[in-house]
Design a protein that fits this description.
The complex is a heterodimer of chains A (about 300) and B (about 300). With about 300 residues, chain A is α+β, with helices and mostly antiparallel strands. Helix content of chain A is about 20%, strand content about 15%. The radius of gyration of chain B is 21 Å and the shape is globular. Classes of the chains: A alpha+beta (about 300), B alpha+beta (about 300). At the A-B interface, strand 2, helix 3 and helix 4 of A face strand 2, helix 1, strand 4, helix 2 and helix 3 of B.
């Protein structure tokens, strides 16, 4: 874990000067996010990994089963939707690709209607899951016939397949991925940190390489790396490295001030954070409120 | 000006789909290796669903790192369950799946008879998980069931949305009851807590709805309606609010919730109806499911792909 115990915890607010957060400010900003975007919820995580500088029931934020309707390469990028948030960044800056795109549920449904067959995310059958050569007779997959089965006659069950044929825009099973997203407080960088774990439409976990398809190519293997989640034991998870977060937020605070609009207050931190994270994960449809506008 | 659709069609329900995150499997591995070892005793599990999934998503029942803890998960509407974890794949395949379903149904049927489900409707939200974990290979065979009674006593006679049927004040009151998961309400949207008066005063049945389908309610309504039918003496139409939350134009809203008028007939008390509820696999068959986590959990595989 990066945040080793000897690093002193930030006590006083340095938000306006440097774009960093104290743990208390993280909780404040988290409460504000949960209020405006209730699909985000506070969680405790593994009891053995509770951090004493955060309330036990507010260790990190999570939103689950977030849809990712299409792969990045299928997205239509248009100039009017792109805003460079950080023009001076030698790495090319954070490109806010979703700047003017409305992601209300209606719009999502509309865009799904527009998708033709070729645009659909690929099916599991196209995706080799694992080392098939190691399969032995004792193992099972969903495809095999030797798994237990029960008789099938329930007139009151809505069958996903029927719905899908009739109304592709409102089906129970759409060929899409979903993500679980977590925002933790990074004690070393004193900023929020985003973690992601993806599944295909059959709820099979995505490999690292498959997940890269949903991450902006500017950030794959650069700002997005695999590390241990601070609140879960077990294997590593992909995370957006927080080394530039404070800098970007600071720049946004300055730009907003220069624009003569209302000052950015610390409780809005996570809404701004989630807005610029969209440049890294442009197709993952998590909620970061619609009423907030960054640059008018 | 509400656009009520008038009809008479049997209620159909959108089934739940188990949505198990990788942290659950990590916990199962640890529990099996450190604590259970070869012990095959059934263990309690806690799951939950939410009513705010985006359109087009299935009705997820979520299991996570805290599903093995003894307290109900408070991140949504709780579902309480039991995991039957076998030591071999042969035992997994040989489980009496019909028997598991029937005994699960009997457990729920007893809450109909003793009236406890009228006081605590979420008692009807139960599931079973039969599982075989191949710990060394990080591969899991599993099968969930959400026991529900097959009845032919419920017909939708009109369908509308919450938004077009109630005033802003009424909607606020209704939404504030969402944390209950399910409830019986009187004319003024007060929760009826007196078991004796329950059906006499009941005007509305409220359910937090995991379904995102624009026509059909989610699975938890199924036993709830069977329960009402069970306690009815004669045919009756009930008003059912299938509460859903979503964000529309930046604001949280429940206007798209289904508002159904459902005609219920009396359900016989003497014979337990047939029980169904095994989950379909990814091919749409009533068969067990399988997940391979070796790519994300196997230390050997991870070091290969690490960056």
């Amino acid at each position: 874990e990066i945040a080793s115990p000897h690093i002193p915890l930030l006590k006083d607010s340095k938000f306006k000067e440097t774009g960093v957060l104290t743990a208390d400010e993280f909780v404040l900003a988290g409460d504000f996010l949960v209020y405006h975007c209730p699909t985000w919820r506070w969680e405790t995580g593994d009891e053995k990994m509770v951090k004493d500088y955060l309330p036990k029931d507010k260790q990190f934020l999570a939103t689950r089963n977030v849809p990712c309707y299409q792969r990045l390469k299928q997205m239509q990028f248009t100039e009017e939707n792109e805003v460079i948030l950080d023009e001076d960044d030698p790495e090319g800056g954070w490109v806010d690709t979703h700047h003017n795109i409305d992601t209300t549920p209606t719009k999502i449904t509309d865009s799904m209607d527009d998708m033709n067959l070729e645009d659909k995310p690929r099916l599991l059958s196209d995706t080799p899951v694992a080392d098939d050569d190691e399969e032995s007779a004792g193992e099972m997959t969903d495809d095999e016939d030797d798994g237990p089965e029960v008789e099938d006659n329930d007139p009151a069950e809505v069958r996903p397949s029927t719905t899908q044929t009739d109304k592709p825009s409102d089906s129970n099973t759409v060929n899409m991925r979903s993500y679980d997203l977590y925002i933790t407080y990074d004690r070393y960088y004193q900023t929020p940190r985003m973690w992601l774990f993806g599944y295909n439409e059959n709820r099979q976990p995505l490999s690292i390489e498959e997940t890269y398809e949903d991450i902006s190519s500017d950030h794959v293997k650069k700002t997005v790396t695999q590390e241990n989640h601070p609140h879960f034991s077990g294997p590593g998870m992909l995370s957006i490295h927080p080394c530039k977060h404070a800098e970007v937020i600071k720049r946004i605070i300055e730009q907003t001030a220069q624009g003569g609009r209302n000052e950015v207050e610390v409780h809005m931190y996570l809404l701004i954070f989630l807005k610029f994270v969209q440049s890294v994960l442009p197709t993952i449809e998590y909620d970061y409120t619609q009423q907030f506008t960054m640059s008018g | 000006e509400a656009t009520y659709q008038v009809m008479s069609t049997p209620v159909q329900y959108v089934p739940l789909i188990s949505s198990i995150d990788h942290t659950f499997w990590t916990q199962l591995n640890a529990k099996k290796l450190d604590e259970l070892k070869l012990d095959e005793r059934p263990l309690p599990l806690n799951a939950f669903y939410t009513n705010d999934c985006k359109p087009g998503l299935p009705a997820h029942l979520t299991l996570s790192y805290d599903s093995f803890t003894n307290k109900p998960v408070d991140r949504g509407t709780p579902y309480t369950g039991t995991i039957l974890n076998t030591n071999t794949v042969e035992e997994f395949k040989a489980k009496d799946f019909g028997g598991i379903l029937k005994s699960a149904g009997e457990k729920i049927w007893s809450t109909f008879h003793d009236g406890s489900a009228l006081t605590t409707p979420t008692l009807l939200n139960q599931f079973y998980c039969v599982c075989f974990a191949d710990l060394k290979k990080y591969k899991y065979s599993y099968w969930f069931c959400y026991p529900a009674f097959v009845t032919s006593t419920a017909n939708i006679v009109s369908r509308a949305t919450l938004g077009e049927s109630f005033s802003t004040e009424q909607k606020e009151k209704i939404r504030s009851l969402g944390t209950l998961g399910a409830a019986f309400l009187d004319r003024e949207f007060n929760v009826i807590d007196d078991r004796e008066k329950k059906l006499g005063q009941m005007e509305y049945v409220l359910m937090n709805d995991p379904s995102t389908d624009s026509e059909h309610p989610g699975w938890p309504l199924r036993n709830l309606l069977a329960l009402v039918s069970f306690h009815l003496d004669a045919k009756r139409t009930v008003k059912v609010i299938c509460l859903r939350e979503n964000k529309v134009a930046g604001l949280q809203s429940a206007d798209h919730s289904l508002y159904l008028q459902i005609e219920l007939e009396h359900l016989s008390k003497t014979e337990m109806p047939k029980v169904v509820g095994w989950e379909r696999n990814t091919k749409g068959k009533l068969k067990s499911k399988f997940v391979d986590l070796s790519a994300s959990m196997d230390p050997a595989r991870i070091s290969e792909s690490s960056v």
